[in-house]
Structures are given as structure tokens and as C-alpha cells.
Design a protein that fits this description.
This protein is α/β, with parallel strands linked by helices and 429 residues long. 39% of the residues lie in helices and 13% in strands. The strands form two sheets. The protein has a seven-stranded mixed β-sheet with strand order 1-7-6-5-4-2-3, with helices on both faces. A five-stranded mixed β-sheet has the order 8-9-12-11-10. Helix 1 runs antiparallel to helix 3, helix 3 runs parallel beside helix 12 and helix 15 crosses helix 17. The mean pLDDT is 95. The chain binds pyridoxal-5'-phosphate. Pyridoxal-5'-phosphate binds next to helix 4 and helix 5.
Length: 429
């Protein structure tokens, strides 16, 4: 696609129909693909020719949608995965193996925190967590000779911290490793991390990209900016021959822009098989077509709800980077000038009991373990996802007992505020 504005790419990116071809992305619901000779097929297996042979590795529908996400992020290559969890695991495991080390922001999605700190630890990959607000010196101090990647989230779920991407990229590059950014909450509509030096971007497409709570999915995009060959000894998987592909060296054969995603597809998708189904990719693409329109409304509703809550006497505090007094307001002005997302968190003055009572009174906002879709939903981590923790542990985890996380959907903001107002009316503080 030519260099269109992001709105045009949301609608038309990734796929251009042939003359007489289907206007909408075709769902190629086929596990396999037919070839006239074994020789032709062999070339595909050897990565000597381009084409499809088995949908566990690649499927045309998934590639069209991955291509749209690639265009939106401004990258050189992209792939879809079965979930956001798979995307983050693949992005890290593609360049880290047993004996390696990761530096990660401590303010990340709970599932990713578990993945890195528990499951990847079992694979012999260690992690050092740093505060998203750390200084350059503190970040530098977290590195070891075996560090292979730095990881963080543009806007963290659920803490809503905003990462100084440029600083994290600068320090990562000074140590010869890439910065991987999970851009799920911001989406490329509100932040394009490659512009600030990130090297790899991941997504849980389950959230705003799908946007309708309809299908689980993930994506990985490569900026093509990281020079693997310049750090040859750190990334042998990309810079030395792969015996499982007849001695191909990915960084040589597919270049700086193609090596990461080709290796991730050829090895990790082949061996772990966390593919997205063509049907899900089609649904994801319907979400992408309106992403720019929906994000603007999610942000408008989030801002209005945050402002209302901040002015309410029963509310102790509100976390939303769009509020002038917020801790992340200044950093958000730089990275998120057009808005952040629809997720707001806040504390009720009456503590845990008041939070529970408040949520019971809400009529529009449903109690759900989900965020970032068209319907407003809310969650009190202390009584649900984090209920095994003591009050002290909850504070340490950044989700104090009274905290409510509300994901503002696409409903009327007047209705959302009226619903919150009547629920607050009903609780005693
Ligand atoms: C939800 C989420 C994930 C995990 O995505 P799934 O699609 O649920 O596997 C990863 N990162 C962030 C920031 C998320 O919000």
C-alpha cells in the first residue's frame, strides 16, 4: 500500500483485491495447499520459495490481516498468533534461550508477569524487573552480559502506567539488545512505538483491535531496525545456520527486516503451533476496519468518566493519564498526544466493601474479567483476580483493595456517567 494515513490503512490495508476478486478479505479455510510436484513443495519446506503449504505455519487470510497490522505499526514483517500470551512468549523466546536473561518493566499484564517470572524461569531464562519509572542509571544496572531483550507495555494493564519508550530503547540499544513493546492498550492509533525506538511490537488483538469481545488473538510486528548481525554473538539463532532448515542463516537470507518473523514462523510456529484461525483473523479484520473510529470514542468516554469521578466526593483517587494531575500526564503528552485508551481505575473512599457495593449497583457496566471492548465493564481485583492476596500484598501489586478498574465502552458517555452517579449514590462511605 502507498503511504496512506492511518485511518485509510485501518479500512483498506493488508489486502488489495484483484480484478473481479472478493472485496472483503477471503477466508481461506483450508489446512493445506496443493502443488503439482514434490519438488515445488520441497522448495517451500526449505524456505527457498514463497508460498503456503500448511496452515499451522502460514495461512493467506492470517497473512493479509498481519499485513494490515504491520502497515499500521510501520514495520517490515508481521505475524498473527493464537493469543496475546503466545505473541509475547514467541517474541521473547525467538531470541532468548536457556541461560539468557530479560529486563522487564514490573508494571505489565498479570499473564505476562507469570509467563516471564514463572514459566520462562522453568526454561532457564531469568528476569530482572524494573520500575517503569526507573532512572537511566537504575535501568542500566539491571543488565547482565547474558541479557537478550528489554520488555515493557506502552500503557500497562491494569496499572495504567505509561512507559518512557525512548529511554528504554536508548538503554536497550546501548547494551546491544532490542526493546519489545506490548502496544495492546494504546494500539497504533494512539502510539506507534517504532517511532520512539522500539524494535519489536506485540499485541493482544483480543482487546481493542478486535474490539467486540469476539475472538482471542495476538500479533507480532518487527520494525526491521535492529541489526542482529552487529550483535552476532548475542543472537546465534538469527545469525548462525539453523540445522533444522538446511543451514539457513535467517539474518543473512531474509535480511534485517525479515529475519525475526521468518524464524519465529519457521521454528516457533512449526514447533508450538499457536496459530490464529482464518475465521478469527477475518473477525479481527472487521474490528481493525473501525479501530480508529472506536479508539477516539473509547478515549472520549474514558476522559469524561475520569473527570466525573475525580470531582466526586466519594472517590479517593483516579488513575487516568488524560487527567492533568495524573502522575503520567506529562509522559502521555509525548507518547499519547491524541488520547490513551478507555480504561480508568479509581479508588472508593469506603475501601473494599464500598467498591463491592458500588459495582453491584451498576446497571450498564458489567462485572467481567475483560477490558477494551465495545461494552463497558468493570472489575475489583481484590475480590476477583487477586482475591488470594492480603491487603498489604494488594498494595504492593498496585491494586489496593478499594481499586475498581473500569473499561469504558462505546455507549453514550452521559449514560455511563449517570449509571456511575446512581451507583455511588447508593453506597455508604
Ligand atoms: C490481555 C493482554 C495480554 C494477553 O492477551 P490474550 O489475548 O488474553 O492472551 C497481553 N498483554 C496485555 C497488555 C493484555 O492486556
Amino acid at each position: 500500500m502507498p503511504d496512506y494515513n492511518l485511518e485509510t490503512t485501518c479500512v483498506q490495508g493488508g489486502y488489495t483485491p484483484d480484478n473481479g476478486g472478493p472485496r472483503q478479505i477471503p477466508i481461506i479455510q483450508s489446512t493445506t495447499f496443493k502443488y503439482a510436484t514434490s519438488e515445488a513443495m520441497g522448495k517451500l519446506f526449505d524456505l527457498e520459495a514463497e508460498g503456503y503449504f500448511y496452515s499451522r505455519l502460514q495461512n493467506p487470510t492470517c497473512d493479509m490481516v498481519a499485513n494490515k497490522i504491520r502497515e499500521l505499526e510501520g514495520g517490515t514483517a508481521a505475524m498473527l498468533t493464537s493469543s496475546g500470551q503466545a505473541a509475547n512468549f514467541f517474541a521473547l523466546f525467538n531470541i532468548c534461550s536457556c541461560g539468557d536473561h530479560i529486563v522487564s518493566s514490573s508494571s505489565i499484564y498479570g499473564g505476562t508477569f507469570n509467563l516471564i517470572s514463572v514459566t520462562m524461569a522453568k526454561m532457564g531464562i531469568e528476569v530482572t524487573f524494573v520500575s517503569p519509572d526507573c532512572t537511566e542509571e537504575e535501568l542500566n544496572a539491571a543488565f547482565r552480559p547474558n541479557t537478550k531483550a528489554v520488555f515493557g507495555e506502552t500503557i500497562a494493564n491494569p496499572a495504567l502506567t505509561v512507559l518512557d519508550i525512548e529511554l528504554f530503547a536508548k538503554v536497550a540499544h546501548a547494551h546491544g539488545v532490542p526493546l519489545i513493546i506490548d502496544n495492546t492498550f494504546a494500539t497504533p492509533v494512539n502510539c506507534r512505538p517504532f517511532q520512539w525506538g522500539a524494535d519489536i511490537v506485540t499485541h493482544s488483538t483480543t482487546k481493542y483491535m478486535d474490539g467486540h469481545g469476539a475472538c482471542i488473538g495476538g500479533a507480532i510486528v518487527d520494525s526491521g531496525n535492529f541489526d542482529w548481525m552487529a550483535h552476532k554473538e548475542k543472537f546465534p539463532g538469527l545469525t548462525t545456520p539453523d540445522d533444522s532448515y538446511h543451514g539457513i542463516t535467517y539474518a543473512e537470507k531474509f535480511g534485517q527486516g525479515g529475519a525475526f518473523i521468518t524464524k519465529c514462523t519457521a521454528q516457533l510456529m512449526r514447533d508450538f503451533g499457536c496459530t490464529q484461525s482464518p475465521q478469527s483473523a477475518f473477525i479481527l479484520n472487521l474490528g481493525l476496519e473501525s479501530l480508529h473510529v472506536r479508539m477516539a470514542r473509547h478515549c472520549e468516554n474514558g476522559q469524561a468518566v475520569a473527570e466525573f469521578l475525580q470531582s466526586h466526593p466519594k472517590i479517593a483517587y483516579v488513575n487516568y493519564c488524560g487527567l492533568p494531575g495524573d502522575k503520567y500526564h506529562e509522559v502521555a503528552k509525548k507518547y499519547l498526544p491524541n488520547g490513551s485508551c478507555g480504561v480508568v481505575s479509581f479508588g472508593l473512599k469506603g475501601g473494599r466493601k464500598a467498591a463491592e457495593a458500588f459495582m453491584k449497583e451498576l446497571k450498564i457496566a458489567a462485572i467481567e474479567t475483560h477490558v477494551a471492548d465495545a461494552r463497558t465493564c468493570c472489575l475489583n481485583p481484590a475480590t476477583s483476580t487477586h482475591r488470594q492476596m492480603t491487603d498489604e500484598q494488594l498494595i504492593a501489586a498496585g491494586v489496593p483493595a478499594e481499586l475498581v478498574r473500569m473499561s469504558c465502552g462505546l455507549e453514550s458517555k452521559e449514560d455511563l456517567i449517570a449509571d456511575i452517579a446512581q451507583a455511588l449514590e447508593a453506597v455508604e462511605v
